[in-house]
Amino acid sequence: MTNKKDTNIFNRMMSIDRRWVFLLLVIVCVTAYFIPFTIPILIEPEVAVIHEFIDTLPPGSIIFLAIDYDPASLAELHPMTYALLEQCFRRNLRVMCTALHPNGPSMAEAAFLDVADSCRMDKTYNGEFFPAREVVNGVDYCFLGYKPYPALVILGMGTNFRLPFPADYYGTPLDSIPLMRGVQNYDQMACVVNISGTSGTEYWISYGQGRFGFPLALGVTGVMGAEYYPFLNSGQVFGYMAGMLGAAQYEKLADNPGKAIIAMKVQLYAHFLIIFFIIIGNVGFFMDKYKKKREGR
Amino acid sequence: MELGTFVWTTLGAMLTLAIFSFLYKDNPFYKFAEHLVVGVSAGYWAVILWHNGLVPNLLERLQDGDWYYLWLNSSRPWYLIPAILGILMWTRFSKKYSWISRWPIALYIGIATGVAIPLEMSNRVNKQLYATMSNIHWSNFFGTGFLDTAAGYSEVIVFIGTIAGLIYFFFSKAHTGTFGVIAKIGIYILMIGFGASFGLTVMARISLFVQRIQFMHEDWALPAFDKTNPNYSGWFPAFFWLVGLIVFGYIMRELIIYLKNKDKPKPEKA
Amino acid sequence: MKRQIPVFLVFIFGVFMVFQYFSPHEASEWVYKFLMDWIYIIGIFAMALGIWSLIHVSYDKIKHKRHDWGYSVVTLAALFIMTFFGITGFNENGDWGFYFMTQEGLTNPMFLNFFNYILVPIETTMFSLLAFFIASAAYRAFRARNVLASMLLVSALIVMLRFNPYFGDAFAFYMNKTAAWLLNVPNMAAKRAILIGIGLGMVGTALKVVLGIERGYMGKG
Question: Is the confidence metric ipTM above 0.95 for this complex?
Answer without folding.
Answer: no
